[in-house]
Specification:
single chain; about 100 residues; 6 helices; transmembrane helix; Putative ribonuclease H protein
Length: about 100
Amino acid sequence: IIKKFGAKLAKWKQRCISMGGRITLINSFLTTLPIYLLSFFRIPIKVVQKIVTIQRNFLWGGDIEANKIPWVRWDTICLPKNKGGLGIKDLIKFNEAL
């Protein structure tokens, strides 16, 4: 899973993507692939944490390797849009729910 993320993000990293574009990519690809796998298997917490780290780094800087300063807590980002969040699914909670 993590290798697939790295390959996709390497393509997207080369382009200048706005914050809105990164949010769309996280919601469309970086969240849906793990959800598909979560429906079949229970993913170990370490793998889920690594995926969440990749999502965070990509959101704040567009790079999965570099750590950027997060200006908003991840819990707030994972809230629904009508509650002030960005609507990104919290994979740790989603893994527990499935």
